[in-house]
Each structure stands twice: as C-alpha cells, then as structure tokens.
Amino acid sequence: DGGITQSPKYLFRKEGQNVTLSCEQNLNHDAMYWYRQDPGQGLRLIYYSQIVNDFQKGDIAEGYSVSREKKESFPLTVTSAQKNPTAFYLCASHRTGGKNGYTFGSGTRLTVV
Amino acid sequence: KQEVTQIPAALSVPEGENLVLNCSFTDSAIYNLQWFRQDPGKGLTSLLLIQSSQREQTSGRLNASLDKSSGRSTLYIAASQPGDSATYLCAVRNDNNDMRFGAGTRLTVKP
What we know:
The structure holds two protein chains of two kinds. By secondary structure, chain A is mostly beta strands. Chain A has no helices and eleven strands. Chain A has strands at residues 4-7, 10-13, 19-25, 31-37, 44-51, 54-57, 64-66, 76-78, 87-94, 103-104, 108-112. In chain A, the strands form two sheets. In chain A, strands 2, 4, 5, 6, 9, 10 and 11 form a seven-stranded mixed β-sheet that branches. Chain A has a four-stranded antiparallel β-sheet with strand order 1-3-8-7, with no helix packed on it. In chain A, strand 9 and strand 10 (103-104) form a beta hairpin. By secondary structure, chain B is an all-beta fold. Chains A and B meet through strand 4, strand 5, strand 9 and strand 10 of A and strand 4, strand 5, strand 9 and strand 10 of B.
C-alpha cells in the first residue's frame, strides 16, 4: 500500500546537536511538506518542496534545513540554532496539478534532553 | 493571511449522540477544505475533502458541509461511538502551497 513513512517515531536530542528526521513516500506525489505541532496549537509549516532539488521556507523555517534530492524523500534537519525544538513533527505530501488532499505520515516526536 | 478557528476546543458527549464540530476561516478564496482525525501521538488521517465548488461530502456516519461565503464548515458525526474519540482538525487550502490548520476540537465519547 502507498503511504508516507516517518522515522524514527521518537528522537532525543542533546543541546547543541543536529538531528535529522526522515520522511519517505511511495505515492508518487510531487509536493512534500514538514509541519511542527505544539500542544493546543494548529500545525505550522516549516518547509515545503514542489519538485526535486527545490524547496521553500514556510512560516517557521529558522533553525531547520531540508533537502529534496529524490522525489520520494524529504528529510528535515533540526539544527542547534533551533532553540525550542521539542515538538511533534509531521510530514505530508500531495499530488500537484489539481485540488487534491494531503496525506500525512505518523509523525516523529523530538525531545531535547 | 488565512486564519482558521475551531470551536469548541473540547467536547464530551455520551455515546449515541449526534454532534457538530465547527470550523471558520477568514478568507473565502479557498481551493478546498479538509477534515482530519488525529489520535494521541499519531499522524493525521484524512476524513473528508470538500472542493471549493462543493457544498458537502459524506462518508459513512460523517458529513461535512462548506459555506464559502460565510467562511464556515461543519463536521456532523451521527450516532457517536467511543471509537470516535480523537482530535478533529480542519485545514483550509488557499493555493498550491498554503494550507492553514485550526487548533482542533478534542472529542470524547463516553460509553
């Protein structure tokens, strides 16, 4: 079955450390997104990519970086510059060229220790 | 900038009740509106997708309506069950790159 796979499910980061969250999809979707979810708040967009080798900043890109070397993969790196990284991170994708809905992965919970 | 509001933030009902969740948005120039379900610690599961040209969509016990002119959508759940307990999120898409989410309504259905 097609879907989006996020790994790991839980991730712990030490102060000053960079960590990378994985997002892989086999839906043949062109567009991919990273969102951050904090308790009691809606999802906030970090980065998005509509095609390979191209990506754009969302509302809260500071302290994060991404790459899109393959259509299927859109990894997110949380850098040491992100001062409050503890959150639930969600990856999503959709097919462009039409009014299609979004498909989400199961999420990664990142905790600073 | 599109703002999406969901009311109430939390709702508790006895099993078997019919209920309505509300979503409002400030910019009526939308592509579509999507309702999601989120269980604790999980990702989002799509429930219904309503295009801007549609008035409603139905799936089983769920019915979502859209009134673009007034900037409102409702999610109607018939004959609620304990398994419906979850957080329900409304998301509005304005263009190909911009999707805005409400903070969600946390639903508890008591046996």
